[in-house]
Amino acid sequence: MSNYSNEEIRSLQLVELGMLKEFDEICQKNNIDYFVLYGTGIGAVRHSGFIPWDDDIDIGMMRSEYEKLKKIYNDKADSTILVGADDDCPYHEKVFPRVYLPGTEFIPESWIEQYGEIKGFTRPIWIDIFLFDYCTEAEIDKKMKLTKKYKWYFTYTKYKEIFRTDRGIKGSVLSIVKRLFYDFSRLVPNANKKAYEKYLKAVNREPCDTIITFDAWINSDILGSFSSVDKVFPTQRIKFEDITVSIQKDYDYILRNIYGDYMQLPPEDQRNGHRPLRLKLTRD
């Protein structure tokens, strides 16, 4: 798919909106707290819905809330499914959970560029759920380094990266290392599961006054998510398209901490989504 039109983006957004509606209804009916964040948070505040060029949904919640959610979600959902890192799902390679819409397909070009075409591989349209854990400011740097290692282990014990010569010498060497790591992990029983268990151990902590998510890959997203509990909770409701969703109590402080003046539109050349190689919006 060489072009990604505004019409296609909007059609994808509407599918994701339906997924968000179901997710929100289940959370509301079962007293499970969550909040939109990152680009979805900006969209809610600045556009009362999606950022026009955004093609995914980002949700945050405390890990303890997720533990409650995963016990009930798949029994109560009509169309979507909740998948976590410990579910041994063939198309799920993140340490954080996602809500998927089976029967659809969304394969970004960036994924193919990294892993190539895997025979029979498909992935449904998804919503990201970033899980928050307690953490003090003094612990952030050490935990960022540790969790980045385990996230890397988890991902690269799942799929074998293709060898790319167009990334320069450093990029080519790194892709070789990742391929070798995958090959070696095949010799270790349950390597993927063990990587996730180490990640959970790294983020686990007794409650304190501040929280963070280490689930994101971009350091600025991790650092920007660090906040006092009383800036996040109690969450409040905000308009998003034709529904309302939950957002942090002091969302303005949190968004500015990550993006600065987030109410200012970015330059046009930075208004990009995840260009798909394959996109199927309707269910089988």
List the helices and strands and how they pair.
Layout (H helix, E strand, L loop, with lengths): L5 H24 L5 E2 L1 H10 L10 E5 H14 L4 E3 L14 E4 L3 E4 H7 L9 E10 L5 H17 L11 H18 L5 H13 L6 E3 L6 H7 L1 E2 H4 L3 E5 L2 E5 L3 H9 L16 E5 L4
Parallel strand pairs: 2-6
Antiparallel strand pairs: 1-2, 3-4, 4-6, 5-11, 6-7, 7-8, 9-10
Helix pairs in contact: 5-7, 8-10
Counting H and I runs of at least 4 residues, what is the number of helices?
Answer: 10
Proportion of residues in β-strands: 15-25%
Give me the Rg, rounded.
19 Å
Low-confidence runs (pLDDT<50, min 5 residues)?
none
Secondary structural class: alpha+beta
CATH class of one domain: Alpha Beta
Structure explained in plain terms:
With 284 residues, the chain is an alpha+beta fold. It has a domain at 6-135 and 211-273: Beta Polymerase, domain 2, CATH 3.30.460. It has helices at 6-29, 38-47, 63-76, 109-115, 140-156, 168-185, 191-203, 219-225, 229-232, 251-259; strands at 35-36, 58-62, 81-83, 98-101, 105-108, 125-134, 210-212, 227-228, 236-240, 243-247, 276-280. Strands 1, 2, 3, 4, 6, 7 and 8 form a 7-stranded mixed β-sheet that branches. Helix 5 (140-156) runs antiparallel to helix 7 and helix 8 (219-225) runs antiparallel to helix 10 (251-259).
